[in-house]
Amino acid sequence: MNRKSLGIYIHIPFCVQKCLYCDFVSGRASFEVKKDYVNCLLKEIEMRAKKLSGEYIVDTIFIGGGTPSVLDAEYIKLILCKLKEQFEISKDCECSIEVNPGTVNSNKLEAYRNAGINRLSIGLQSCNDNELKALGRIHDYDTFEDTYRRARKAGFENINIDLMSSIPEQTEESFCDSLNRITELNPEHISVYSLIVEEGTPFYEMDLNLPDEDTERQIYYKTGQILKEYGYERYEISNYAQPGKECRHNIRYWRCDEYIGFGVAAASFLNGVRWKNTEDTNQYIKYMQDEKAVTNMQDEDMCCEKEILTSEDMYSEFMFMGLRMNCGVSKAEFRERFGIALEEKYGAVIEKHIQNGLLQNEKNYIRLTEKGRDVSNYVMADFLL
User: Fold this and answer.
1) Are 239 and 253 a contacting pair, CB within 8 Å?
2) CA-CA to 209 of 20 to 30 Å: which in 27, 87, 294, 343?
3) Closest residue by Cα to residue 66 from 112, 113, 34
4) Helix 331-338 × helix 311-322 angle, to 10°
5) Long-range contacts, stretch 147-151, CB < 8 angstroms, 24+ apart
6) What does the alpha-carbon distance between residue 374 and residue 368 come to, in Å, rounded to a whole number?
7) How do residues 54-106 score in pLDDT, each as one tens digit?
8) Taking the model in full, what pTM does it have?
């Protein structure tokens, strides 16, 4: 039997201290809650795996949060062992975990490697200690650098560093300084995200000294220029990698491939259905500790959101997400997936944006031009109609 490719996401909703900008499902928790949560995760993995009847092979795993590295390494090992027990894992599976400086030591990093994790994503955000303080981060730059060097010593050869732009107190100069300092460390992957002030976060209620639009625009251009000089290629709007080091798990999302999420607030997409688990950690634990409920669990049970995608939805999402990537959308793959030519469905929209210099048709791919990236949301919105 030909097994389909599957990605797995594990959500760990715990952290030492919630950052001022964070709107993710995360927060502090007692030792007992963490222990109960991990046991519930193991149970959910086992129950959902049975429903899939061995039809998938897992080629990407991503453990995110929150801050997964606040858990004891033994818990991470238990989670990965359960995944290996319940799923067929490909030999070249990309297995990532998010870590924050100040929450890992050499022993924990070595334990990750021994458990099968082969990619780290380190949440730095800035090399400037004043900017880190303004974000509510628990670490300074020296702590990050120590974490990075320990990770290299532990044998990690695939490391991402997260950097945030348009944050309080930041200038074009301070951002470029952060970017240059990161590139000197030579990580394989760099993600550069612009701050979005979300309702419900402390930042939303604060009077913030944020960079103006011109500075934001310059930071965006400088990012591409500096990273290109250091050998990094932009393969998605916010992500840069050395050749062959693109994040395969995130590419899965942008290609609208299938994935399943475990844990509170974790999202899944299988067989044209998307759902997300409850965002209440206590409710999640209570449900998973109910043996009767778990025994009769369906994929969409315990969810706070569920959507059955129509054909039109899937066409639109394939275009919207695919245009985020530098390679763009493959016309051949569109036809293979949906049984219809891309031009037949979106010919007029594509031609309009080609004429305006925002899209290009090259080597059987439709992709954004440099000009198109500047107004990418405008272009992508046309495929959602």
Assistant:
1) no
2) 27
3) 34
4) 160
5) 147/99, 147/101, 147/102, 147/104, 147/122, 148/122, 148/185, 148/187, 150/104, 150/105, 150/106, 150/109, 151/104, 151/109, 151/120, 151/122
6) 9
7) 789 999 999 999 999 999 999 999 999 999 999 999 999 999 999 999 999 99
8) 0.95
